[in-house]
Design brief:
Helices cover about 45% and strands about 20% of the residues. The chain is of the alpha/beta class and about 325 residues long. Strands 6-5-4-7-8-10-9 form a seven-stranded mixed sheet, with helices on both faces. Helix 10 links the parallel strand 5 and strand 6 (about 205). The longest helix is centred in the middle third of the chain and has 28 residues, at about 100-130. The termini are far apart.
Amino acid sequence: MTRLNTQPLPLLGWMDSLADATRIRLLRLLEQNELNVMDLCEIMQLPQSTVSRHLKILSSQNWCHAQRQGTHNLYRMLLDELSPPMRKLWLLAREQTDDWAALHQDELRRQSCLKDKQADTQAFFASSANQWDQLRHEFYGNAFESLAQLALIPSHWTVADLGCGTGQTCHVLAKQVHRVIGVDESAAMLKTAQQRLANYDNVQLKRGDLHAIPIDDNTCDAALLTLVLTYLTKPSDVLAQIKRILKPGGQAVIVDILLHDQEDFRRKMGQQNMGYQTSQIKKMMQLAGFVDIKIAELPPEADAKGPALFLASAKRQS
């Protein structure tokens, strides 16, 4: 006698997870940005208890993942991390809900929420331009910059310094490489950088959003991103932009903060999040299409008061 399989199929659980309008709305938002519960409550105009309850269901079915950031969890849905059957089911659900009025309202509030966060970041840089170099030294030391530049040795290279700030790294690179392109969104930071770099004719400074880097495709031999990731709303988009501007075989170098629990520090520095685990950085770089990824945690300098840093390097595939 054949015994029937009485175990519930995973498909039924996945379908049950998506059988609710609120959970569809949540996933549509989390597919675009990493957000905490308070962000989601503000965007969706729902109480925290409702949002948390639905997130718990989605997390239990692996539709989204949470990462602890201080007193908050940050939630994100990554399409590439879904199993193939889940991905097919989600793409169907997304297609069938494109015309929902509630989603349009969510999108408008999501954009407003991100603009507010970006405005906070820009206000921080506008007020900190004159003391940025001192802050970086106080919290992170100086050794991280020379360590990052070990990957930028060849003198014939064109190097992009993304989020160049006051031009401190551009100043060092200008003495070592053929051409430096500095990009930053803050007018106050760039004004200071222009003063510092006035005597260098191999440095070009550009104002622009790193989510749409104002540099042509296949232009740079290397791109450096120093203490910038924690200020970005969509770091995966920026990594894709970095790949775009690099020549085949070009080098990407990232220095940033390891995940920490100092909420006061995050607020003081105007950052969007509280750092990254090295496993997260590796996964983001892999998804962006980089190869030969190397990541190392940097021991804090003796007089540095801020969180420890990591150094990551990778290549654009030839």
